[in-house]
Amino acid sequence: MATLFVDKIDPQSGTSLEIGSSGDTITIPSGATITNNGTQTGFGGTNTPAFQANLSASQNLGGNNTWTKVAFNEESFDTNSDYDNSSNYRFTPTVSGKYMIYAHCQLSATAVDRNGISEIAIYKNNSSIAQSIIDPRQASSEGGHRFTCTINLVVEPNGSGDYYEIFARCFDNSGATGTLHYDNDGSNVFGAYKIIE
User: Fold this and answer.
1) Per-residue pLDDT tens for 59-109?
2) 121/144 Cα distance (integer angstroms)
3) What is the pTM of this model?
4) Could you give the domains of the chain?
């Protein structure tokens, strides 16, 4: 293998320079450093598939202290059409790898001082894998009114059948049923994105 010693390579004409041909392997040896002072394209990776969805209105929970699937029905974006926002309200990534899943939900009791416990959970294939809880009580009859629970978790789906959903529940110490309270498009959010490895 011959070695070419030069300090700079410029295109013979125009402004495009090509190194190698299709099918070639260009090797940067161990210990070498690539310095980029220009615009790069085609390097690294992308955080996709990715999606984010929210509630378009308040949602009633299925009962007092009852786990209820959150029906995030309005998509902000969905790069691979992996989120179902009309029937199952679940994320089924079509590419295997590691993903960051995140959600937050605003849970509201029926009146001030009635919200004893607010919880949200990430479910994988219909089983809880992570939970977030707010419990402000010092006595069984005490509580707050409205809380925002936040949760995030790195998961590793198989890229075919694994799916993820968000469930929530609120313990109203009056026995009544609370709601997922809608203030705006950002008050209840569910999303995920693939991590670049």
Assistant:
1) 999 999 999 999 999 999 999 999 999 999 999 999 999 999 999 999 999
2) 20
3) 0.81
4) 52-194 (2.60.120.40)
